[in-house]
Write a structure and sequence with these properties.
Largest sheet: 5 strands, parallel
CATH architecture: 3-Layer(aba) Sandwich
Number of helices: 6
Radius of gyration: 14 Å
Structural class: alpha/beta
Shape: globular
CATH class: Alpha Beta
Helix content: 40-55%
CATH superfamily: 5'-nuclease
Number of strands: 5
Order of helices and strands: EHHEHHEHHEE
Length: about 130
């Protein structure tokens, strides 16, 4: 069984069955042998963007979106102390998005593959599928 962490944008595309999700990403997350994970940090990021008017979900609310995740057998991965420490161990570089850095730390600390369109993750040595 492979475990994948789905980044925030890919998570929205997956849950809303949007065509923007690449064929390789869709095949991986649709595979019955794949354990699909979403970081609680992604839900936090979405809540902030909704509040700021930068994100609208087709489900209408983050609460309903979370129910959609459960219905799609996506497990929510809580942020641990080790994840927070792992963020501090990442190289500083150009990429400063705190949510992305946390996802990278979660992937590296747990040896997860990340489903993401964002090539910035490659600088951290994260296994990424798109």
């Amino acid at each position: 069984m492979s475990q994948v962490l789905i980044d925030t944008q890919a998570l929205i595309w997956f849950a809303e069955n949007a065509p923007a999700l690449s064929a390789a990403a869709r095949a991986l997350v649709d595979d019955p042998n794949t354990v699909r994970l979403a970081s609680s940090a992604s839900l936090w990021e979405m809540a902030i963007k909704i509040r700021l008017g930068k994100l609208t979900l087709r489900s209408g609310s983050l609460r309903r979106f979370a129910i959609m995740l459960r219905d799609h057998d996506v497990e929510v991965l809580d942020v641990s102390t080790n994840d927070a420490i792992g963020v501090g161990d990442l190289p500083t570089g150009e990429h400063k998005d705190p949510f992305d850095r946390l996802l990278a730390a979660q992937c590296l600390g747990r040896r997860l593959t990340l489903v993401s369109i964002d090539t910035a993750f490659d600088a951290y040595g994260v296994r990424r599928v798109w």
